[in-house]
Amino acid sequence: MPASLTLPFLRYHQIPIPSPFHLTRCSATTTTTTAAAFSQIESTLRKTMDRLAENARLMIVSDLDHTMVDHHDAENLSILRFNALWEANYRDNSLLVFSTGRSPTLYKELRKEKPMLTPDITIMSVGTEITYGNSMVPDDGWVEVLNQNWDRNIVSEEAKKFTELTLQSETEQRPHKISFYVQKDKAEDIMKSLSTRLKERGLAAKIIYSGGMDLDILPQGAGKGQALAYLHKKFKAEGKLPKNTLVCGDSGNDAELFTIPDVYGVMVSNAQEELLQWHAANAKDNPKIIHATERCAAGIIQAIGHFNLGPSTSPRDVMDLSDTKMENFDPAYEVVKFYMFYERWRRGEVQNSELYLANLKSVCCSSGSFVHPTGIEQPLHDCVNSLRTCYGDKQGEQFRVWVDQVLPAQIGSDSWLVQFKKWEQSGEEKQSCVATAVLSSKDVTVAEGLTWVHVHQTWLNGGGQNGQTTWLF
Q1: What is the DSSP secondary structure assignment for residue 251, as one 8-state letter?
Q2: DSSP per residue over 375-422, as a string?
Q3: Which one, 55, 169, 271, 361, has least CB within 10 Å?
Q4: Main-chain dihedrals φ then ψ at residue 379, nearest 5 degrees
Q5: Which of 363, 341, 339 is nearest to 420 (CA)?
Q6: What is the pTM of this model?
Q7: For residues 215 and 115, what is the distance between their CA atoms, to the nearest angstrom?
Q8: What is the pLDDT of residues 69-104, one digit of tens each?
Q9: Higher pLDDT residue, 49 or 249?
């Protein structure tokens, strides 16, 4: 098998854990799965603070609009590059935190529109709401902090006296946040006057202006930076303070993030004037804060490399996925690489070669099986054969594939159970499934890659309406 065509991409598939769960056996050690192993996978998806065996290698705290998410990138390549990097190298031992000015309602809308990963922690409403995990469980301790010396009624009364302020939509009005629109040339004077009025009424509120139009009034102890400081304190108390924290932003309401001690910071290249002015006045000599030359998520990747926080080459930037040199078996990295190959095959961006298909078969157990989200089971080798008929079928289309929450658990000396979510987007249509795969390193070298033994998929929240004919892996 030519070295240039070895495929370390075929490593993992997907299986939502039906019960009872039966695996096609390839070797005793490979498929010895227990209730404890499945419980471990489930717990990693639900818990945040207890998921990591030790201090997080890296915690990224990123704003969303115009930072992680580039609304001018129709192909979403910037965020897809970050997604691949994170899932391949960081998900298992690091923490991803989204910190947004959006309310929960608008945050969930953005998740439907863009190929965003699932964060471990979500900070919303300009730092006034903190939630954990997939279920977005609220932090009640943070609520208690914000309740101190906060009277929403007083804030509303005083704000109504300024006719220049236009109340934002009802979804953006939160228990600890009142939000308005205001013209840029009037913002500074209104902020000063309103702050004085609130102080006269015995209320110490925080007023934040960002985006050239948004004015938010919060409790004095709120804000994106204060929320991060609260998390750091919480992690430190449990002995799990992340080894490094990188904060990322583009606008005025992100400025506080850069004031937290010992963090690295990146202002993306498209950062707004208000944030750049703040930096020039307050942190221009801080070597831990950079103004990236790349936009949005690409700027975040640039900062990871600049500060040497870990790997900074996204699998999406590697043209020959078979040429990656690995020192150890890495299930998560191989899952990402496989789906990168799958996307490129269907987009016609790799050579249409029988050698590729032969190599894919070589890393599939001869008796391995794949359970389609519809419940149909077939041999893995038949799945590989099916790729012949779909080469380049998405050429010229906006077809993208990405994986989320790739979490491997070693269940034997030479076997892993990997659970993740797989997404496909073709134009405006998105399909998704929860997947579980059993992979084995028995009788293979790192260069040869792990053997796929069993893959099982289940549609995620009705995410496969038209997937019976177009959903292959």
Answers
A1: S
A2: S-EEEHHHHHHHGGGGTTTTTTS-EEEEEEEEEEEEEETTEEEEEEEE
A3: 169
A4: -65, 145
A5: 339
A6: 0.87
A7: 28
A8: 999 999 999 999 999 999 999 999 999 999 999 999
A9: 249
